[in-house]
């Protein structure tokens, strides 16, 4: 009887250890503990090197490197989206007036989902004023509709997902020659606590 009695708590201990091991494997637990920090130029440079490293020569990878002067100061997480845009783009009114090109935008905002795009469009109301914003994501909007809108009208800001923006550029629906600012929604996490840069397809 004593042996049986001793073996029961041991089984409980084993099951507790197994449960602990399972919890460690969850990426969301790891991400939950990591505090959000502003993205730095090195983050993007490392991603480019990782992505293109296997297929490109050393010289080609060197050409992909962007100088630090290409990067805007990151949002130190004390700003709202509108106040951040006002800080990095103080001459927005002038840029907006001078922009007359079709099939292009002055500012391109990339985020991981359609819902997040809508959130950001709402939160930039104080910044955008009366300029035109175009939704560049796939949810409920066909690519041909977006291409027609870009051809017919002048838009100042495009907010969308990397997949749809890439498709529009490849199909010659969106021209990036007059784009002055590209903003990456770096720190926002989805339901699985992944940032845009943690999604392999991106």
From TrEMBL:
Organism: Gymnorhina tibicen (Australian magpie)
Gene3D superfamilies per the UniProt record, alphabetical: P-loop containing nucleotide triphosphate hydrolases (3.40.50.300)
Gene: Cmss1
Disordered, as annotated region: 1-38
Any single GO CC term annotated in Swiss-Prot or TrEMBL for this entry: nucleus
Official protein name in the record: CMS1 protein
Pfam families: CMS1
Top-rank taxon: Eukaryota
Record's signal peptide: none
